[in-house]
Amino acid sequence: MAEKKYVASIDQGTTSTRCMIFDHDGNVVAVGQMEHEQIFPKAGWVEHDAAEIWDNTRKVCAEALANKDLDSDDIAAVGITNQRETTVVWDKKTGKPVYNAIVWQDTRTDPICKELAGDDGADKYKDVVGLPLATYFAGPKVMWILENVDGAREKAEAGDLLFGTMDTWVIWNMTGGKNGGVHVTDVTNASRTMLMNLDTLEWDESIAKDMGIPMSMLPEIRSSSEEYGKVRHRGVLRGVPIAGALGDQQAATFGQVCFEPGTAKNTYGTGNFLILNTGEEKVMSKNGLLTTVCYRIGDQKPVYALEGSIAVTGSLVQWLRDNLKLIKDAKEVEKYAKEVDDNGDVYVVPAFSGLFAPHWRSDARGVVVGLTRFANRGHLCRAALEAVAYQSQEVVKAMNADSDVEMTELKVDGGMVVNETLMQFQSDILDVEVIRPKVNETTALGAAYAAGLAVGFWKDLDELRRQWAEDKRWKPSMEDDERQRLLGRWSQAVERTLDWAE
C-alpha cells in the first residue's frame, strides 16, 4: 500500500465549502471550492440549505482529489472545520433537515433570548457556559425550530430528530448518514451552543430543559483530535478516518500554532474573530468577551480561550459591492481607499445584525456618519476598511483588560489580510505589530493539523510550531494623539447605532 502523503481538510464556511489537501510541510497542494446560496427570508433572518451544503461537500472533495490526481489511498486522515453556531435539525430516519440551517448571523431568536433571560438578565448561564444569552448561539436556534416547524416538537420528543452544528452534519453524512452515521461534535463547537458546561465538557441537562431541547437530539461531545469514524459514503475519501474537528476560529488559532497562553490571532473573514489562548484555566470575561474552549487533543486537558466576535467585517465589503454597487470587485475597495488621504471624517459602523463583542447590543443597527458634500466613494471605502480595524481594537482593549496581559503582537489570517492598507491601519490603531503567516489558509490547516496529529501523520505540537513561517510584518507609525482622536470619533459613531431596532 502506498505511503499516505497528505491530509485533507473540509472547511465548511459561511459562504462556501472547500476541501483543501495539505502535504507534510503544511503546504496546500490541491483545492476544491463551491459557494452556496445565502437565503434571507425576512430582515434579520439568514439561512442555508443544509442539503445543498452536503452535496457541495462531496463535490469539492472530488474536485480537490482530481486536481492533484489523488485518491483516498493517498490521504492519511480528514479534518473538519466549520462555521460555528449555524444550526441544523434533521430527521435521523430520512436524513433530511426539517428546516433550513439557521446561520450564526441570524437574529430571529432575540425574543427567545429575552424570554429565557427573564429577571436574571443576559448572563443567566454565563458562569456555566461562558456565553451571554444572544441570538449568535445555537441553543436558542434549536428552540426556534422546535417551536415553529410543524411536527418538529413531537418528532424530537419521540427521539427521531438530531441536532448539530455543521461539523456534526458533515460527519454524520460522511460516516453513513441514516445508515449508521456517527453523531458527534467536538468540544470547541459544543462550547458555542450555550448547552455545554465548560468545566465538565458535558451537556448541561438543566439548560437543555429550560430550552425544551430533548437530550436525545444532542451529539456526543468528543475531543478536537481523535478518530470519530471512517468515511463510509460512496465515492470520494471512502475509508479515510475522520480524525479532527474544530470550529473555524479555533481551527485558525490551531493553524497559527497559538499553543501557549497569551498567544492570539485575529481572523478577517465574513466577520472578525480574535482568540487569545488562556491555557488550561478558563478566564471569565468582565468586558463583553466570550469564554470558550480553544481545543482539546485526545484525552489531554482542554485548553481554553477568550474570544471577541465581530459580526460584520468582510461582509461589509460585500455590502459595498452587492448592495450599494460602489465597487465591482472586493479587491477594488483598497484601490479607492488609497485615492483619499484620510476618511474625510466619515465613519461606517456596520451593526447590520446588532453589535457583537464587546457591546452585545441586538438593538443596534448600522450607520454611516459624518457625511458632507466633500465625501466620495474613496472616503466610504476607507471608512469601511477602518471599521474593521476599529472593531478589532475594541476587542483587543477588552481582552487586555480581562487577561491582565498586554498584547505585544497580533497574528492575522483570513481573506482580508491581503489588504495592506487595512493591515497598516490595524497596526496603527492597535499600536502593536501585525504579522501575516506564509500559509494564510490557517482555518483549513488547523483542522488538518488536528486530524494529522490523531493518526500520527505529525508527531506533536513542536513539529507543527516549526512549520509556522512569517510572510510580512506591519509596524505602527501613527502618533498617539491622532490615534486617540480617531478612536474618540469612532466611539461617537458607535453611540449613534444604539436603541434603533425594536
What does this structure look like?
- With 502 residues, the protein is an alpha+beta fold.
- It is built from 16 helices and 23 strands.
- It has helices spanning 50-67, 110-117, 126-129, 138-148, 152-157, 166-174, 187-190, 205-210, 248-255, 314-322, 332-337, 377-403, 420-430, 442-454, 461-467, 480-495, and strands spanning 6-12, 16-22, 28-35, 47-48, 75-82, 87-91, 101-102, 161-165, 184-186, 196-197, 202-203, 220-222, 225-230, 241-247, 264-268, 272-279, 290-295, 303-310, 347-349, 367-369, 409-413, 433-437, 470-474.
- A seven-stranded mixed sheet has the order 17-18-16-15-21-22-23. It has a six-stranded mixed sheet with strand order 3-2-1-5-14-13, sandwiched between helices. A two-stranded antiparallel ribbon has the order 4-7.
Observed structural traits:
502 residues, seven-stranded mixed β-sheet, globular, six-stranded mixed β-sheet, 16 helices, alpha+beta
What's this entry about, in short?
With 502 residues, the protein is α+β, with helices and mostly antiparallel strands.
Itemize the secondary structure elements and their pairings.
Layout: E1 6-12, E2 16-22, E3 28-35, E4 47-48, H1 50-67, E5 75-82, E6 87-91, E7 101-102, H2 110-117, H3 126-129, H4 138-148, H5 152-157, E8 161-165, H6 166-174, E9 184-186, H7 187-190, E10 196-197, E11 202-203, H8 205-210, E12 220-222, E13 225-230, E14 241-247, H9 248-255, E15 264-268, E16 272-279, E17 290-295, E18 303-310, H10 314-322, H11 332-337, E19 347-349, E20 367-369, H12 377-403, E21 409-413, H13 420-430, E22 433-437, H14 442-454, H15 461-467, E23 470-474, H16 480-495
Catalytic activity: glycerol + ATP = sn-glycerol 3-phosphate + ADP + H(+)
InterPro entries: ATPase_NBD, Carb_kinase_FGGY, Carb_kinase_FGGY_CS, FGGY_C, FGGY_N, Glycerol_kin
GO biological process, one term: glycerol-3-phosphate metabolic process
